[in-house]
Structure to design on (120 residues):
């Protein structure tokens, strides 16, 4: 003879199964997010290192041409954007590095800037 399972037991089992299923899906997504976060932090660290190395090129060029140049703190992204947009020396170098100026044209621009406002 077959055994009859009460409705409340079936409903409870359905709830338990749903909870287990959702827990498994949640854990899978959480593990995936964790691995993506680790990857993101690695990429961000590499990007910051590359940005720092790029800034060093501008510092070296400023030292070579004896241009007084004070960069804002590395965390000040808005300040960095402003100085690169407003400083004529940096604008000339950016144009050169972007290929819009030749080395001779860039040198002429920088020398003209030095004649306009000599370094202290």
């Amino acid at each position: 003879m077959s055994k009859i399972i009460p409705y409340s037991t079936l409903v409870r089992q359905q709830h338990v199964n749903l909870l287990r299923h959702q827990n498994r899906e949640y854990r899978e997504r959480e593990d995936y997010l964790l691995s993506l976060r680790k990857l993101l932090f690695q990429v961000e660290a590499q990007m910051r290192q590359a940005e720092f190395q790029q800034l060093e090129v501008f510092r070296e060029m400023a030292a070579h041409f004896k241009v007084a140049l004070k960069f804002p703190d590395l965390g000040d992204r808005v300040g960095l954007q402003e100085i690169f947009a407003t400083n004529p020396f940096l604008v000339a170098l950016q144009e050169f590095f972007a290929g819009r100026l030749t080395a001779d044209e860039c040198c002429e621009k920088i020398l003209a800037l030095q004649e306009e406002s000599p370094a202290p």
